[in-house]
Amino acid sequence: xxxxxxxxxxxxxxxxxxxxxxxxxxxxxxxxxxxxxxxxxxxxxxxxxxxxxxxxxxxxxxxxxxxxxxxxxxxxxxxxxxxxxxxxxxxxxxxxxxxxxxxxxxxxxxxxxxxxxxxxxxxxxxxxxxxxxxxxxxxxxxxxxxxxxxxxxxxxxxxxxxxxxxxxxxxxxxxxxxxxxxxxxxxxxxxxxxxxxxxxxxxxxxxxxxxxxxxxxxxxxxxxxxxxxxxxxxxxxxxxxxxxxxxxxxxxxxxxxxxxxxxxxxxxxxxxxxxxxxxxxxxxxxxxxxxxxxxxxxxxxxxxxxxxxxxxxxxxxxxxxxxxxxxx
Amino acid sequence: xxxxxxxxxxxxxxxxxxxxxxxxxxxxxxxxxxxxxxxxxxxxxxxxxxxxxxxxxxxxxxxxxxxxxxxxxxxxxxxxxxxxxxxxxxxxxxxxxxxxxxxxxxxxxxxxxxxxxxxxxxxxxxxxxxxxxxxxxxxxxxxxxxxxxxxxxxxxxxxxxxxxxxxxxxxxxxxxxxxxxxxxxxxxxxxxxxxxxxxxxxxxxxxxxxxxxxxxxxxxxxxxxxxxxxxxxxxxxxxxxxxxxxxxxxxxxxxxxxxxxxxxxxxxxxxxxxxxxxxxxxxxxxxxxxxxxxxxxxxxxxxxxxxxxxxxxxxxxxxxxxxxxxxxxxxxxxxx
Lengths: 328, 336
Prior knowledge:
The complex is a heterodimer. Chain A is an alpha/beta fold. Chain A has one domain (about 5-315): 3-Layer(aba) Sandwich (Rossmann fold). Chain A has helices at about 5-30, 55-60, 80-85, 90-95, 130-140, 160-170, 190-195, 220-235, 265-270, 275-285, 290-315, and strands at about 70, 115, 120, 150-155, 175-180, 185, 190, 210-215, 240-245. In chain A, the strands form 2 sheets. A 7-stranded mixed beta sheet of chain A has the order 2-3-1-4-5-9-8, with helices on both faces. In chain B, helix 8 links the parallel strand 10 and strand 11. By secondary structure, chain B is of the alpha/beta class. Chain B is globular, with a radius of gyration of 19 Å. In chain B, helix 9 (about 255-265) packs across helix 10 (about 280-290). Chain B is built from 12 helices and 14 strands. Chain B has 2 domains: about 5-195, Rossmann fold (3-Layer(aba) Sandwich), CATH 3.40.50.970; about 205-335, Rossmann fold (3-Layer(aba) Sandwich). Chains A and B meet through loops of A and helix 3 and helix 11 of B.
């Protein structure tokens, strides 16, 4: 490993933090929804798309970002916003629908906005990418050395918005890094029947954009690829595309029966847990002991517990606040 | 023999299956409509029955596959295209409003576009602003698209078969909360008797779900269910509400609404779409134009008050037309 111990440890800690949040949400989400699952009930209503298993991608990419760089996420963006450095209290309060949340309860889990971190995400597949193009355009017009990142699933690479955006980013030579998280499934539809090319990295060539495929379970691979792409964008040399091959360890959303998964596939991928993979490498270097790993896990669990307590103690917005914020 | 009961989602899937058996031109395209059976169950079991040539899972390419549906329909096939959430029409509005809706007209009636666009709509379960809209009013505004909103399993089957056999484009909006899905809030009205044989329900014929003399309540979708719940509560107070299920918005059964208003002299419209410039305004205008002299108190409307659907539960419940609000408003009208 060419990375320093500090960098590696930071990556490990960020992944552990994301995992702790998602593990807890995977429990909390069912509170009040069982025994007969009711999506509308419980402390966190609505859909819930967890990032568990994909931690290496957000972590490796966002490690290169400054607070003023912008990130456009997806419907599965907890990992992205945590890696960007969100205040967990505000994030969880939003997911709990509270007034103290990032968006004061208006957005919820799929629509997290953090204005200070230049972070936004939403529930429409591929829709964040053209907006990231716009962020990058603004940066270029103002001659700033900031960069814009767009995270997408591999399913989004078949949407028209993807192709239009790559072309725009290329012709305008924008400081944009497009990160495709290829977890093989657009909900239930496998990439093998949805995508005409084997790797979406091949599609970069169609727009003259340098593109690489990396192992998305390996945070160091993601970190190194993103490092080059972000530096290139910051130097004003234009957009790049990274395809990170990864896997979601939970369903598309909570409650997904996953009838579409081939037998044994998930179990095989779970053996490639990004946190375990990095932990092993660090241990081999003598940079992490089992006790230290446990203590990081405990620290993150405590951090999440504190944020959750804040969320639960926070007030709900008043019903009639629904009428505010329609216009600026 | 007891009547066979089906959920609305199973009634839709059965309608599609029977039409596919009858007509080889019928096929289905959409996201997660195959092995998954549709996120809201409307194509459950169809892949197993018909195979992936006719039950086609698509990439996330709405502009592409809705456009492809139009093209296949112009060649004489009868595609059913599912757009997973009504909200996602945002991605494909050009194909829907500038092409699907207008090709028949622009071609002077020479080219037909016999397709069904099936969409899940509605909120009330915490899915926030991009996954909870109804939007049928927006599409009803565009000339050339028939708009169907079933509110019972029986209607869902008959209206779907009618939609498939229609020679023009039909947008078929079902409410997620009326599908009878095991993972949504239980709704007894989402299960009901459905005949096994195929049948059609003509468009433009509203259904008087409950007769009454004191106040007319017009609705559809999940708010129709709430209106029926409200009518039961009102009956306990001695107020007889007449509840009309529109079933289709385009064509709109003005006659049934006006006849009811002529009897009750009071009209409450309950609509889960946005309030302004939509269905509730259109119905109000029709009654003002054609039956104003029969109205005693002015028309009342309960609809989403022109705000995006908020996430947090207290806010979302505040903007949804509730049973309580329907009871209170209808009571006020009856007393006026």
